[in-house]
Amino acid sequence: MAADLEQTDSVFDFLYVDHRRLSILLTQFGVDGVLTELVRGSEDAAETGGGVSLAVGKADHKRSGKTSLARKFDPRWLLPLNFLDTAQGWLCPDVIDARVGQLVLLKVGVGVIDVGFMKRLWEIPFVQQSIAATIPQENLADLPVNRAARRRDKSGPKGTDTSPLTDFVGSLMGMMPHAVQATFVTEKGEVLWGTLDEEHLTGSATDIMLKHGHTLAGEWHLVGILDAMPKGSSFEELRNRVEIEQSGSQLFGILQHFGPMLELGYSRPPHAYGVTPLIVMRAIAP
Fold this sequence. Notes:
Elements: H1 2-5, E1 11-17, H2 19-27, E2 38-53, E3 58-73, H3 79-86, E4 91-92, E5 103-114, H4 118-121, H5 125-132, H6 147-152, H7 164-175, E6 180-186, E7 191-196, H8 205-212, E8 215-228, H9 233-246, H10 250-266, E9 273-284
Region (Disordered): 144-164
């Protein structure tokens, strides 16, 4: 795969480039740091002259001049290609063989979802009440009643007010992180999950979702840092032990109910690898 990326006649479309992390990594491969400006110059020299014969001698005259031209280029978009060339021996082509903290270069399918729009969804009282209705009532015994908050809510029908649980749901969901999430699936079916910083996207997450939906068409390449392995039995044993120790807490009962939903919608799925994306790109056909 790396050989395919080295062809000089290839042109690539970059969906995501983390210039900051790439610069930090690339700096460690050389003593000069990262190239920030490229200047190419040319110079033309010309000389004219002649002679005049006089009775007493000969007079010569010469005129010379130089013209120089300097062109400055922004090498920023050479950074990902330079990194691929420089770090070629550090890139693992198979996630199964990779270790946590290792760089990987994988051929993948890409899915992107912007969870940011859901932050406004949680502000709708009907959505809050629908989520609150799914929580077992035995977990609500010690939850204090916020009368002032219920009086302020005028969205429901007259004579109804929001429960303290609904207030809690609205506050909790509003505080959850709403990042741009990406899912990558390899040719062998392994799933990797990570978040994308909108600053490093070449387009907006909203535009990507409107154009492609959740799944982007075509064959893509992912360069990233492997951060976490799929959750196994050791994780399940630890979680079960924590649940047993804290099962007497009413608040923990509520959070325990939210746990699977938050894990599904806001964090890495249990079966997925964790990855920090550095480059997401595809080759453009001539």
